[in-house]
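Observation: inputs received (chain + magnesium ion).
Thought: call the complex predictor directly.
Action: predict_structure
Action Input:
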Amino acid sequence: MFENILPLYGLNSDETTVNLFGDGLINHTWKVTAGGQSYILQKVNTDVFKNPSDIDKNLCLLKDFLSKKDPDYLFVSPVKALSGESLLNTPSGYFRLSPFVEGSLSLNALTKEDEAYEAAKQFGKFSSLLADFDAETLNITIPDFHNLSLRYEQFKTACANANPERMEKAKQYVDFINAHQDLVATYLSIVDHKEVPLRVIHHDTKINNVLFDKDYKGICVIDLDTVMPGYFISDVGDMMRTYLCAATEEETDLSKISIRKEFFKAVYDGYMEEMQDVLTDTEKQYFSYAGKFIIYMQAIRFLADYLQNDIYYGAKYEDHNFNRAINQITLLKEYIKIEKELTAPLSSSAEPHNQQHAQ
Ligand code: ADP
Ligand code: MG
Ligand code: MG
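Observation:
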């Protein structure tokens, strides 16, 4: 396959080394080294991204804007092939080649608050540099990706059509989701609020989508496939969901699901370092809601899939999605339990909105 792709970039495949690279879960990723230069070659996952050229167009628009806005900003985007295209549609799939960021490393787990701070700062910097870019000119690469209201409707449909045995087993968790519907209402009020604008949002703020240098300072964000118009609660919320707990969504020992309070502060400080002057006062009031929003949505998605016999996520073992849903519900409970303590050290503008939540 590579012998057909690399020459399209003027690379001689006999003089090139290609190795699978990184721990990304969506695309196929290889490191390509040729004549002292390294690249990242990716085959785009078209099960997830139905129109890869939509991503390519977004990256071109952003690259153009950012190169003028801040020429020193490292925006890692695909290079052009000999044909002039930055995305190649080949018989083996859609491919793109980006410069490898030399001296970079990525983390799969967060052990230090400083790393959470650095990552949040990079995601904040990205949205901050793009604050004057008209987000609505971007293509939507995954429709309704973080549309909580739709996800909740889909959950209700899943409940109505559920596998009866699974419904019986999941009953108390279904009740928990329904008892927290106010989180959906808050989402709807955010979306409708004129002081919560659509922004350029990354939408996949997992820690391995930030590149660090050897001293663990953030270099830049990568994995830009889900960059779309959205709300800042998506990026902040997925950082909360994936940075605050030392255990992942796969953990089945629920005693390990707890919140590292100092990581919440680190995410806040890093993100606000860049976004303090960009976010409206209204947005700031939803900072801690962001965590509940994304954790709740993920719980809903795992539980809905369990009730529908794992058709979307699949399952490595019988109760896989059931366990993942309980994991996320436990995380949400922990978060709600200490939300006041989490937000106490923040500046007054970031104190949570006066929202009532069923416990
Ligand atoms: P996925 O969508 O599958 O997660 P990513 O774009 O995140 O794919 O790439 C997977 C991994 O490859 C990243 O987590 C990172 O470790 C590495 N990587 C991607 N792009 C670069 C790059 N330009 N320079 C260095 N490493 C990179
Ligand atoms: Mg990634
Ligand atoms: Mg990705």
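Thought: report the result.
Final Answer: The beta strands are 16-20, 28-34, 37-43, 88-90, 93-99, 199-201, 210-212, 218-221, 228-230. The longest helix spans residues 287-307.
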